[in-house]
Amino acid sequence: MVGANPKSEVLGRANLAAMPASSRHASSRALASRRLLPLLTILLPLSLTLAHCGQSPSAASLAANVQGSTDSFEDRFPKPQFKDRFPTAAESFQQRPANTADAQNRRVVQTQPYRVASLAPIVPYQRSQHEDQTALIGLKSSAFPYYGNNPRSDAPFLNVSNGDRRGHRSYSGRVFWQDETFNDNRVLMHVPQHFDVNKPGVIVVFFHGNGATLERDVRDRQRVPQQISESGANAVLLAPQLAVDAADSSAGKFWQPGALKRFINESADHLAQLYGDPNAAKTFANMPIVIVGYSGGFVPTAYSLDVGGVGNRVRGVVLLDAVYGELDKFASWIASNRSGFFVSAYTHYTQRRDQELMQMIRDKGVAVSDDMDGPLRPGSVVFVKTPDGVTHRDYVTHAWTDKPVREVLAKMSLTPSLTRLASSNSETSSH
């Protein structure tokens, strides 16, 4: 025992034996206390150290703050990096039905052959219905990254640099850096469970507006995939990511001649995989197209019509509060493509430009309607002013009607002439 004196301890035991019983008990307790004291001097600091090590993280952080820690908010809560905010290109977002039992039933696909009630030989079972398929897939032909010129100025799109970092200075004067705003090449793809590649169908290309992401806005808030499924139309969706969550309407690769055609061709294989039949890729590659442009999406919409390289395959254009410019491109397409329909719905924000575009179209001898209650026929040109109280932010889900994308596609699928045009165009393009 540390600190003990052997000689004193022997004398203490001898004196203890000569004492009365009651005195001996008291002396024994005192002697035991003296033995424990050195041991406590060692154990007490050790116990305090162990208690401090077992302290909870929140308490430790509080203690650091009380002591005047110099760690900044950014040190304790670092800003997410680009790779953390955006999943990998292979990540898929499947929309599951609410009823688990129904979902399990729909996932059962019969693969065994069966005998038909005729003299025909055994044939494979037809492909059964499956769930809606939604995925985010990176494409080389998507809008960004883009290293070319801005056609409006014929100057490099990336016109700002800071060391190795490159960016784009917008018309407002704000700089958007490529690694944050113009580096996401993913496309939101959606194939409804009822889609049938053997029937006339269309590809809906959706160009989103400013300040948007595919997951948060196009998929979850504006519910564009859901609107396509609910329309009942035989349609699939392609929605490329444009500027990421930024007030910028740049079209990127869609500025280039033939860009829309390259985009559709590269998407075809992925749509076929989502559909579950790789042989369907050729059909998707030649399928007619309906373009929907919302707000700042008017720029890639206009250039896709002007130089997209798909000829008369565009069977319809829908602008949702989106006529901010490029009026000559829209007017030219309307006058030259009388087999497709054109719909522009607008608020007071774009009313002046819509009225200007209406006059340009009338000057070309094309009739203009302001009624969306009638049938949507080939060559229809409709401008719809939405009432006060309709907000620009919610326009994709609430315009002249709730879920306007669903409404237009439903009208299109109920118009036999448009269906026949889509079918004949697809068959012609495949030969």
Automatic annotation (TrEMBL):
This is Alpha/beta hydrolase. InterPro entries: AB_hydrolase_fold. It comes from Bradyrhizobium erythrophlei. It comes from the Bacteria.
